Every structure is written in structure tokens, then in C-alpha cells.
Amino acid sequence: MSESSKRADSPGMGHTRRGGKGVILMMFLSLLALAVLSLFLFIKVYEQEQALARLTGQVEKLVEVLQAGREEPDNLPGGDVLEGGDTRQGDQGIPGKDQEETKADSDQEGRGEEFPSEEDGGSQAMELGDTEEVTAAHKVYLTFDDGPSIYTDEILDILDAYDVKATFFVVGKDTDRAREAMREIVARGHTLGMHSYSHKYSQVYASLEAFEEDFVKIREYIYEVTGEESHVYRFPGGSSNTVSDLDMWLFADYLEEQDVRFFDWNISSGDGGSQILPVETLVENCTKGILGRETNVVLMHDSAAKHTTVEALPTVIEEILAMEDTAILPITEGTVPVQHIHREE
Ligand code: ZN
User: Fold this and answer.
1) Entry pTM
2) Helix, strand, or coil (residue 78)
3) Beta-sheet strands, E only, within 70-109
4) pLDDT tens readout for residues 28-64
């Protein structure tokens, strides 16, 4: 009696048991709900990450295009110059360019006549094992400035397709994509040259110390990324640029001390200007006068703003390869340098 009354008196016990089951069920359901929610969130985050990666890629491309467009690398003091008394200069003429650029063009043209031939090249790159190097009467060195860019891969594929080697004068680009492109350039047997780290004229040429700092930065960056030491350099704007207030020999001497040789060009594709040149013009510019010279260094740009350069490249290569006694080669330490500035006697 007392037992039953006890039971009756304690109705809570039965509730507790049922309540216990209820709590467990609730907990289970909650956990399940949490698990489902987590999975859902995980999928969402994953999707967002993918979307973000796509966007980042697009932004990276866009930034590169914008920067390339704005900087107009090398076009200021001589990058885009049509060298060597081009009769089409007038109609091709980079219309809409400002006075400064026009002035630079004519400056450069005048200078161009100072280095039309390299007959003085007695010490002809003998250390290269390449037989073509030794025998070809006309040597053509295709050079690409300002990369890596979104077009580096495409350029490399084209060069591979024709089995020719070129030279890339790169700047400091701190992205995985750029680093990968630099490694590819080396892996596929091309020459990786330096073109300053910042490519900002005002910084690079501010003083010898500033030049040194920038030089060390790009040299070490290339070594860090590729494991290769670069020994060739192209001055932003060329050695004949008109932006440096300091004598360019100050920097050239420094490079020599560093066992680095600088290279200008004696054929300009003309793609350094703000205008996008048509393919035919680029082909004509890049192939002009080769048979009249022993050493031809062709200036082109590996830049997001220069798509026609990539389009023109196959034809440029085909036309050069079709020329008699002519070889396309990468610049090496033994290559006879083409330089715009000369030491005063
Ligand atoms: Zn440049």
C-alpha cells in the first residue's frame, strides 16, 4: 500500500523515464540537424571558395590588363620605336600619341642609325654548342619584355611548335602564376633575363643605390623561383631611354661589375606603344632588315595588353625561318650584345 502510494506519490519517476527518452531523442535529432547543417554549410563554403577562386583569377587577369595598359611599359623612351628609317613610319605612325612619345620616337630613330650593323662582333658566341649559332650568317634573337603575363604560356607553346628558343626579360611579379611561368621559361630552354623588379622608371633610375636595390631584388627573385642565375639585363626603356636623369653608364658599369650584360634591340616590333598594332604591321616590323645584319635583336612584349603580338608570332617565326642562312637563337652570355649607348672614345 505504502509502496503503491509511494509510486503514486512520485509520479515524477515515470515522467523522468519518458522524459529521458525524449531528451535522448531530442539530442539525437539536434545532432542530426547539426550534422545536416554542417554539411550544408560545408558545401556552401566550398561553393563560395570556388566562386572566389574564379573571381580572383578574373580580377588578376583584369588587373594585369589594366596595369599593362596604363604602364605602357617601354613605350616612353624608345620601347615602341620603329628602328632604322622606316618609310611606313608616317602612316603607321602611332597616331594620337602625345608629343613626348613622338619626340621619343624620333630620338630613338636617330639613335637607331648608330647601330644598324654589328660587324664588330669578332668574338662570336663560340661557347655555344649550337652549330647553327656558329654557322648562320644572320642570327635573330626574339626577346619578350615585361612578362610573365597571361600570354606567356601561349608564347611558349608557339615557340615550342617551331622548336625555337627565345629570351624573356621579366619583371618582378609576385603571383603563383608568374612564378610558374618563369619556371616554364627555364624548363623549356629559353633564356630568362632581368628587366628590373619594379619597372618604374622613377624608382629604378632614381640613384645608383635605388638601381642596385631593384637589381638585387629581381636577380634574387629569379634565383629563388627558378634556381637559375640570370646574367642578362634589359633596361626598362632601353639604355637609350630619355627618362633617366643620371648617365646610364652609371648603371651599365654596375651591371658589368655584377657580371651581367645588358641588351637593347635593333629591331622593334612596335608593340610597346599605347596603340594595338595589327598583326601585319608587327610581322613586317619584326622581320625587316634581318638579311642586312649579322645580329638581330627583336623587341616584343609579353604583356596582357599585347594580344596581337601573340597572334603575329607564328608568322614572324615562319618568315624568319624561311630566310636564307638565318637562325633564331636565345641570348646567352656569348651573344654579341646590341646596345644603344656606346662608350665615348
Ligand atoms: Zn619594359
Assistant:
1) 0.69
2) coil
3) none
4) 888 998 988 888 888 888 888 888 877 876 776 776 6
Ligand 1 centroid to Cα of residue 50, in Å, is: 34
Q: How far is the CA of 74 from the centre of ligand 1 (A)?
A: 4
Cα-to-centroid distance, 201 and ligand 1 (Å): 10
Query: Which tens digit of pLDDT belongs to each residue from 98-152?
Result: 333 333 333 332 333 333 333 333 333 334 444 444 589 999 999 999 999 999 9
- Cα separation of the two ends of the chain: 129
Measure the CA–CA gap between 243 and 206, rounded to whole angstroms: 10
At 72 the pLDDT is 44
CA of residue 6 to ligand 1 center, whole Å: 96
> Under a CB-based contact definition with an 8 Å cutoff, are residues 83 and 267 in contact?
yes
pLDDT of residue 75: 45
**Could you tell me the pLDDT band of residue 228, with boundaries at 50, 70 and 90?**
very high
Ligand 1 geometric centre to CA of 73 (Å): 5
Ligand 1 centroid – CA 91 distance (Å): 25
Task: Tell me how far the alpha carbon of residue 148 lies from the centroid of ligand 1, in angstroms.
Answer: 11
Q: 118 alpha carbon to ligand 1 midpoint, in Å? A: 24
CA distances from 43 to 36, 47, 53, 113, 200 (A): 11, 6, 15, 65, 44
